[in-house]
Structure formats: C-alpha cells, structure tokens
Amino acid sequence: MIRIEDEGALRRITIARPDKANSLTGTMLGRLAQSVEDWSGSALVLSGEGRVFSAGADLDEVQAGTLATHPGWERLSGAIAAFPGLSVAALNGTAAGGALGMILACDLRLAVPGAAIFYPVMKMGVLPQPSDPARLAALVGPSRAALLLMAGVRVEAAEALAWGLIDRIVEPEALDETAVALCAPSLKAGATRVAEIRSMIRD
Length: 203
Prior knowledge:
By secondary structure, this protein is an alpha/beta fold. The chain has a 6-stranded mixed beta sheet, sandwiched between helices. A 4-stranded mixed beta sheet has the order 4-6-8-9. Helix content is about 45%, strand content about 20%. Helix 1 packs parallel to helix 3 and helix 6 packs across helix 7 (about 140-150). The longest helix is centred in the last third of the chain and has 15 residues, at about 175-190. It has helices at about 25-35, 60-65, 70-80, 100-105, 120-125, 130-140, 140-150, 155-165, 175-190, 190-200, and strands spanning about 1-5, 10-15, 45-50, 50-55, 85-90, 95, 110, 115-120, 155, 170. The model has no long low-confidence stretch (mean pLDDT about 95). The chain is built from 10 helices and 10 strands.
C-alpha cells in the first residue's frame, strides 16, 4: 500500500490504496516514516494513487480506538521535517485530516485544480497532531489556521494557493513531471549542498 521508487538521488513515495481513498493505517504510517528516515538522497516526492491524495486516518482503526493518537503521525511528519533534502508534496487530489501532517512538513506543495484541503478535528472531537497547528500557522497565519482547525473550513485549491498553503496548481497530467522538475536542481547539486541551503532557509 506504500510504493517506493528510487531514481538516483530522488525517492518517490506513493500512497497506493485508492480503493480506500488512500486512508492511512498505523502500519502504513510506520512504513511511510521508515521510507523517509532511511533515505539519504537529495530529494523526496510524496503523492497518492488515484483521485485522492489521502482521506487521512483509516476509519476502521479510528473506531477501534487505536489510530487517532497513534505516535506514527508525529513520527512521519517529524521525519519529513528533519529530512535534509528537498521534500515535495504532489497532491493528486484532496488531502484530509491527519494526512495534512506530512504535507505541512514538506518544503513545497503542489496540487491539482480539483484538490481540497480540510482537517475536521472539531467534527470528530479529537485534537490535531501536536506539530500540525504550528506548521499550519507558520504557512497561513493564525486566523486561517483557525478557519481550518476550528471552523472546519474546506479550502479548495485556488484559495489554498492564495493563502500560501500550496505553492502551485498543476494540471493532473503534468503533476509528476512538475514535481520532478522542481527537484532537478537539488539532484544536480548533491545532498550536502542541498542540506546546507535547506538549513539556511529553515533555521
């Protein structure tokens, strides 16, 4: 359910569970985190298979009471945030709930025109993952973070672009090519130089 493809110093990680809207189980969270933690290349692209990036947590595991507070969410977003290369989230469709953590931790975010972003923690009666609110507010400001987290607003791609929540809107047929093209300079420069520049931006 997690597909990993390495092309030189680029790793592509794809959530491949389209029959379940790419919803994430605890096992999948661990696999995703490990695939980031063990990568020493210069760039990373995260995407989904089908028409949805990820619907967030697998509802069966949520109802079983084992997933909403699973440490795998923080492990995954922390691994992406700590990755010293360039990380790109290529949203092939809507991203919801806990799946936002990995997107917020990336350096760049692309989305297709039909993508939407929402984080229904109020509706579900749970807290967001601990690091998500601060990363969200750093991107869009506290008021817009409140719109997503507290008012439960669903943000369509065009509005997300205006907010700075995503960086570009890309047609579906060009999404993969665009994500790889954005990684090209980092792949050419090499992991050490990429890490140095990323540290200057992040720190």
